[in-house]
Amino acid sequence: MRILIVNPNTTASMTEKAATAARAVAASGTEIIAATSRMGPVSIEGHYDGALAIPGLLSELKERQSAGYDAAVIACFDDTGLEAARSFADVPILGLCESAVVTAGFLAQRFTVVTTLERSRVLIDNLVRRYGMGERAKVRASDIPVLELEDAASGAIGKLRAEIERALAEDGAEAIVLGCAGMTDLARELQAIYGVPVVDGVAAAVKQAEALVSLGLSTSKHGSYASPLPKPFIGAMSGFSPVLKVG
């Protein structure tokens, strides 16, 4: 089984961090392939960044089809481009937020997602509600720019831990979800410190991707995720024009 991990931002060190987390939980017969978007923002913090990251994400999914992959994981907790990717691809596509909150729901009645900035908190709160977990989950921002998670001297880990402690004390949280792909390497350490389940979206998405592939299941192509209709795309988007599928 081959699972493609696509980082929709352009920071390669974050891709490697996600790939390491994926390989740590993947089954022995699963190959993890990591890809970094080659166009777009260096980090994704809010709607504007997310919108401009989607073309790079789709390009990676498209260009790697010839080598083949059985499922793909979009390594951003905003589930950037997830709907478009599911419409494009014929294999299961998983997002970190959806995978993580579903997993947390198996483990706890109440949980808190701790993310980076306030603008991301609002976006993720909307996703959590869309995924049916709005009554069980709270989303908190720890006031950490994403790229500070790459800098050990930034103080980001201290801010993250402080917000987790507030979630446990004030929210009645029985589990914590790490709301950024840049936090993926911290899950085991934080779980040991706080004694509650700490869910990393990368690990959750990889295991769910393996399950879907093993079950022979993929995204429905009837209705909302049907393949795009063939039509011309103009200008810089011309390379994204859908083509008629034969057979």
UniProtKB/TrEMBL annotation:
Q: Which GO terms describe its molecular function?
A: amino-acid racemase activity; hydantoin racemase activity
| Enzyme Commission number(s) of this protein | 5.1.99.5
Q: Does the keyword Nucleus apply?
A: no
The UniProt keywords, alphabetically, are: Isomerase
The source's superkingdom equals Bacteria
Ligase as a keyword?
A: no
Q: For this protein, what reaction is catalysed?
A: D-5-benzylhydantoin = L-5-benzylhydantoin; D-5-isobutylhydantoin = L-5-isobutylhydantoin; a D-5-monosubstituted hydantoin = a L-5-monosubstituted hydantoin
**Family in the record:** Belongs to the HyuE racemase family.
Q: What is this protein's record name?
A: Hydantoin racemase
Q: What is the originating organism of this protein?
A: Rhizobium pisi
